[in-house]
Amino acid sequence: DAKIHANIMSRQCQELIALRMMQKFTELGDVKFVINVGDSFYPNGVSSTEDPQWQTKWRDIYGTHLRSVPWYSVYGNHDYHLDPCACTEDTSKCAQINGDKSDKSRFFMPGTSYFVEHPDMNLEAKNMVIFSHYPTDHFANMPQLIGKMKGDTRHNIVYLGGHRHSTDNTSTFPIWPHQSWVVGGGGGLSCDGNQGFLVGEIDWNDNMHVYPVLVDNNVCCAKKR
Questions:
Q1: CA separation for the pair 2, 18 (Å, rounded)
Q2: 173: closest CA among 145, 138, 197?
Q3: In the chain, what is the greatest distance between 2 CA atoms, to the nearest angstrom?
Q4: Cα–Cα distance, 199 to 192 (Å, whole number)
Q5: Which of 62, 108, 154, 170 could staple 70 via S-S, CB 3.0–4.6 A?
Q6: What distance in Å separates the CA atoms of residue 83 and residue 127, rounded to the nearest whole number?
Q7: Are the C-beta atoms of residues 201 and 208 closer than 8 Å to each other?
Q8: Nearest to 200 by CA among 145, 118, 104, 84
Q9: What is the rounded distance in angstroms from the CA atom of residue 20 to the CA atom of residue 22?
Q10: Per-residue CA distances from 201 to 33, 72, 115, 213, 223 (Å)
Q11: For 165-197, b where at least 16 C-beta lie within 10 A, e where not — what string?
Q12: Do 194 and 212 meet the contact criterion of CB atoms below 8 Å apart?
């Protein structure tokens, strides 16, 4: 739909979101990681680890301090267009795969599917963050998967998906009593709704709390003429 797809006409929105991320990062002081839900390099992804888009579309926008923690990432559908990963099982050929958490020059993504333990945050014992490029409504025809998340009484689950260019918890398939969010409103290409990012905090009792930080949609969602 030309009215909503590729309707962000400059980098101003993404840079505004990056600024708010940096402000929140500094305010919190002990951020452990950033989660990125894919479609990271529009329109066709990156072709290698040396692709200049790593610089122009990521490092130039999100400063060194904001990249001082791992960015846990996944592939989106657009990311595969030029990436050798689309046509090989050898992940060493993949432009975004990086299993070295100390390498902050790229995302941390040890495989196309993976898990990360954070015993310091009690994420395994009490809390679980599940992230994918696709939000829960894309799995509405997979009732066993949805039911397993809904029925998990051991964890406080937060599911994060992208694909749509919005930041909300109203357009997704519910997994009550847990939370499901779309967090694709990063300001990079299109505006389907609220633009911004989600913050997750764990309190002294190991309870996880999440909340959105949104930017002015008048800056981000100007209509095409």
A1: 25
A2: 138
A3: 51
A4: 20
A5: 108
A6: 33
A7: yes
A8: 118
A9: 5
A10: 11, 16, 19, 13, 34
A11: bbbbbeebbebeebbbbbbbbbbbbbbbbbbbb
A12: yes
Distance CA 180, CA 157 (A): 8
Task: Indicate the pTM of the whole model.
Answer: 0.93
Q: What does the angle CA 137 – CA 142 – CA 143 come to, to the nearest 5 degrees?
A: 95
Rounded to whole angstroms, how far apart are CA atoms 29 and 157? 24
Which residues, 6+ apart, have CB-to-CB distance to 19 below 8 Å? Answer: none
Lookup result for tokens 């030029």 = 82
Q: Are 163 and 76 in contact (CB under 8 A)?
A: yes
Averaged over successive runs of 10 residues, the pLDDT of the chain (225 residues) comes to 57 92 97 97 95 97 96 97 95 97 96 90 80 96 94 95 95 96 86 93 91 91 59
Q: Which amino acid makes up residue 44?
A: N
Q: Which residue type occupies 105?
A: S
Q: Could you tell me where the DSSP H helices lie in the chain? A: 12-28, 53-54, 143-150, 217-220
Q: Which two tokens stand for residue 94?
A: 């993949």
